[in-house]
């Protein structure tokens, strides 16, 4: 695969001058919704997407499904007693892409103290001076795409014919890119940072950033049903 080249200006020694941000994880969310969306209080059942490699008994799927269930509960939805009684069928798909090699050119500030010697005239000697500027380095690294897809299907008014297309109520696609392919670490951030868009039409892909120390992620991992309302949440900048 052909490597890509990007230019990054890194802030290290001069955070006030170049505006460093706290460590965070960026992600994109794109949501589509039909006129009749998933109403609050609707019951649902959840399964892996049909035809994929994910199985309902997989421990990884069950872990991620727990996060999705907590997010749906926060939005007002309830698990159905049985799959046949569910008003909505939510399918879950997730994965990590093959690594992409990135060539990154980084420009960062440098500073130091130097000593020089002057000659000429009636005076000579040594003197000190500050050396300010920037240095540019190039490095290679691998990045991975992390993906979570959810689709909500009308389970009450399912087509009678087995070959008829399903009635999709809404779908959402969440992606994140980084140097880790550990989806278990990344996925709770993807859920916590985007769940308020689930069931809505975003109009386009929106970029969000969630801080790495966001307490909602810790609460979500611990199975806290009140995870979305824990204290200490700091607002991260949202992009477009």
Commentary on this structure:
The protein is of the alpha/beta class and 240 residues long. It is built from four helices and nine strands, in the order βαββαβββββαβα.
Unreliably modeled segments: 5-20
Radius of gyration: 25 Å
Structure class: alpha/beta
Percent of residues in beta strands? 35-45%
Shape: elongated
N-C termini distance: 28 Å
**Top CATH class:** Alpha Beta
The total of helices stands at 4
- The total number of structural domains is 1
Features:
Double Stranded RNA Binding Domain, 240 residues, alpha/beta
Give me the secondary-structure topology.
Layout: E1 4-9, H1 15-18, E2 24-33, E3 43-48, H2 59-74, E4 78-79, E5 88-96, E6 100-118, E7 125-154, E8 168-178, H3 183-194, E9 206-211, H4 215-221
Parallel strand pairs: 1-6, 3-4, 3-5
Antiparallel strand pairs: 2-8, 2-9, 5-7, 6-7, 7-8
Helix pairs in contact: 2-3
Brief digest:
By secondary structure, the chain is α/β, with parallel strands linked by helices. Helix content is 16%, strand content 41%. It has a single domain (4-103, 138-229), classed as Double Stranded RNA Binding Domain.
């Amino acid at each position: 695969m052909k490597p890509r080249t990007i230019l990054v200006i890194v802030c290290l020694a001069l955070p006030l001058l170049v505006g460093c941000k706290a460590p965070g994880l960026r992600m994109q969310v794109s949501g589509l919704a039909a006129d009749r969306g998933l109403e609050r209080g609707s019951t649902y059942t959840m399964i892996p997407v049909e035809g994929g490699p994910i199985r309902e008994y997989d421990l990884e799927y069950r872990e991620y499904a727990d996060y999705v269930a907590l997010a749906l509960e926060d939005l007002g939805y309830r698990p159905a007693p049985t799959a046949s009684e569910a008003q909505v069928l939510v399918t879950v798909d997730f994965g990590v892409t093959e690594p992409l090699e990135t060539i990154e050119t980084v420009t960062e500030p440098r500073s130091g103290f130097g000593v020089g010697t002057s000659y000429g005239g009636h005076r000579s000697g040594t003197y000190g001076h500050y050396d300010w500027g920037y240095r540019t380095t190039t490095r290679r690294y691998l990045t991975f795409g992390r993906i979570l897809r959810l689709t909500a299907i009308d389970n009450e008014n399912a087509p009678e014919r087995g070959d008829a297309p399903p009635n999709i109520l809404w779908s959402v696609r969440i992606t994140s890119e980084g140097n880790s392919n550990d989806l278990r670490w990344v996925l709770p951030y993807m859920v916590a940072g985007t769940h308020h868009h689930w069931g809505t039409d975003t109009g386009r892909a929106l970029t969000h950033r969630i801080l790495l120390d966001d307490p909602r992620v810790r609460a979500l991992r611990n199975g806290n049903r009140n995870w979305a309302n824990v204290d200490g949440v700091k607002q991260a900048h949202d992009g477009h």
